[in-house]
Amino acid sequence: MDAYPHQFSGGMRQRLLIAMAVALRSSVLIADDPTTVLVVTVQAQSMELLHDLRTEQDTALVLITHDLAVAAEHADRVAVMYAGSIVEAGPVADVFAAPATPTRADSSTRFRAARTGESRCGTSPAALPTCGRFMLERPDRGTLRFDGPDPLSLRGKELLAWRRRVQMVFQDPSASLDPRLNAAELIGEPWRTHRDLVPRGDRDRRVRRLLDMVGLREADARRYPQELSGGQRQRNGIARALALKPDVIVCDEPVSALDLSVQAKVLNLLAELQADLGVSYVFISHDLSVVRHVADR
Asked: Which residue blocks in the chain are alpha helix, DSSP H?
């Protein structure tokens, strides 16, 4: 009751939003991908809760989802959209029995290491010391080793230099990217601290290069996070992590909030960047199918 949203996992924040939505006992509840960032067991619990509340409060539920399994299990009628238009609609059994618009997402990428577990099991907090966020989280015990001394013992310039080498891509770019900065400013912001890494006169060219590397257009440089799609925001976050030329990137659930087709594109992008730049990944995920595809260990 006394915790703040930034102290919750992504799944806990989503459950809090569900509680806020049902508190008013509305006639209609619009659930916009309510289970996207949740692990499978918590997805089932959340959807069961919504189903029970719909029955108890006589509430109509409009469910928006990219997860066909969720739609098949919980919808009475379904409308399939493509490119902003409804392309087929009808009773859920009819639509799923003879789909007119099959889609397929494929991802076959390889990374260095993965960490997995259910929500609140400690996967994300365990990674925070790895990326140097020592002012926010400190381990209760143990040591961390990466190419030299324990970074928990570093201070001043040594700690700053170590932090440049280990960057992070966060689970929710909507929360991690400053909405007051456009895409170019977000990418270049780390250079305010690491001033000697990229000469001032070369920074605009470097931003354009990073935008191109992650599949964003030059015109996107002037757009703010709220003007980008979820996949574009995550690409912006990846470009920001790459700005400091790190040796390791901690990817904390980088695709959990994205639909399947965008997940595949982001995972393939990360694989291509690793092949081109030689960067290592620590990949945190609750999705075992993603881990199976991306991890070497």
From this structure: 10-22, 40-57, 68-74, 92-97, 123-127, 156-165, 173-176, 183-188, 203-213, 230-242, 260-277, 288-294
Q: Token pair for residue 167?
A: 């960057």
Q: Mind listing the pLDDT tens digit for each residue in 23-80?
A: 888 889 898 888 766 766 677 788 888 888 788 888 888 998 877 778 888 889 999 8
As its CATH architecture, domain 113-179+237-294 has 3-Layer(aba) Sandwich (3.40)
For residues 161 and 189, give the distance between their C-alpha atoms in angstroms, rounded to a whole number: 16
* Whether pLDDT at 113 is above 70: no
Q: Where exactly does CATH 3.40.50.300 map onto the chain?
A: 5-97, 113-179+237-294
Please give the model's pTM, rounded to 2 decimal places.
0.64
Superfamily, domain 5-97: P-loop containing nucleotide triphosphate hydrolases (3.40.50.300)
